[in-house]
């Protein structure tokens, strides 16, 4: 059977409640039954003890000495809580009995110990009974038996039992509907989550689940779904950006490559010409793979594994590794690298993002410096913050371009340094990485005089 979630909650609640109610009802019934019997037994004890003192034994006869009083008292009445009294000898001969017994007689039970209470019956009437031996000189001469009708008590217990039995399913049904209604109300926000998430497609990814007013588990669930949607939206956005940037930026080098190759196959060329065109084609291919590589870095930046992002490193160590990677370029241009830092600096930085930042800035300093130039890298601590400055004496950047340096594909004054390869993505990567670790990048530059890139970690 397929049950709604709310009914399942209600059912579980009801099963637990049913057990508790059943235990409570049975306990109530047993306590009332015990109390009723205890009262009856108490009354019977009182009666039998009272009458035991009024017994006279003469020869083989046993009788009540104030019979008149006995007859006058409640034993006359059969209906209202009657007490039946009977005197019987050891052979079973009845010597005396209360008038309310009429033709009936109380049976002696040899199985019951003297003074104990038990149920018996006469003429379809259930009675509570107790018997005591009548002794003279240590010899049992007979028994006095007292009995009381159980009718009233049994009616009371029956009524109680029926009431509890009727109440049991009624209470459970009532509770089931109430708890099902309450469960329905409390899972209402889930309905809203389902409706909203069903509505969300690629086209309206910015839509979010409405947060419930109460800050409970459902609030957390809605917030978690919203966060998940934000991440998915960002990923799709990145994918869109990547495909549009890639197709846009690769179109020009691809058509240039195609043009070069078409010209080359049109007629036979000299070996030098072939070499020159092939070299050019190779450089275009390098450039394209560089663009793809950097676009991928940008697109994957957010999805790099958390473990990778958490790794830390000492900045001097990271700078050494980066400079090591550019040894060939530095040698080729005969650059002088001056790395200055206080050895006691032991602040660590996030390796993944710091590497992307420093690698691109140092690469630019090398790329945009002339032969035999010097590059100064200074590392110091200012107000508890680690600052790394990379100063070159290269071509510098025009004032009006300095603001746009961090935009995707922006190259300052590109036509004037056509021979320096680049695609305008390096500083975009720097900016995005710095944002990811709350670092700040500042640029000071003068055209033809050099630039200083300062990173505040
Ligand atoms: P690119 O691949 O073109 O170097 P970047 O995003 O790294 O792309 O840099 C963007 C532009 O900023 C460069 O094209 C260049 O004009 C300018 N630039 C960056 N760093 C320097 C530098 N150290 N010296 C001179 N110009 C620089």
UniProtKB/TrEMBL annotation:
GO terms for cellular component: plasma membrane. The keyword Hydrolase does not apply. The chain crosses the membrane at residues 12-32, 163-183. It is found in: Membrane. SMART domains: HAMP (SM00304), HATPase_c (SM00387), HisKA (SM00388). GO terms for molecular function: phosphorelay sensor kinase activity. Keywords: Kinase, Membrane, Phosphoprotein, Transferase, Transmembrane, Transmembrane helix, Two-component regulatory system. Its main location: membrane. InterPro entries: HAMP_dom, HATPase_C_sf, HATPase_dom, His_kinase_dom, HisK_dim/P_dom, HisK_dim/P_sf, Sig_transdc_His_kin-like_C, TCS_sensor_his_kinase. PANTHER family: SENSOR HISTIDINE KINASE TRCS, SENSOR HISTIDINE KINASE YKOH. This is histidine kinase. It comes from Christiangramia fulva. The lineage of its organism: Bacteria, Pseudomonadati, Bacteroidota, Flavobacteriia, Flavobacteriales.
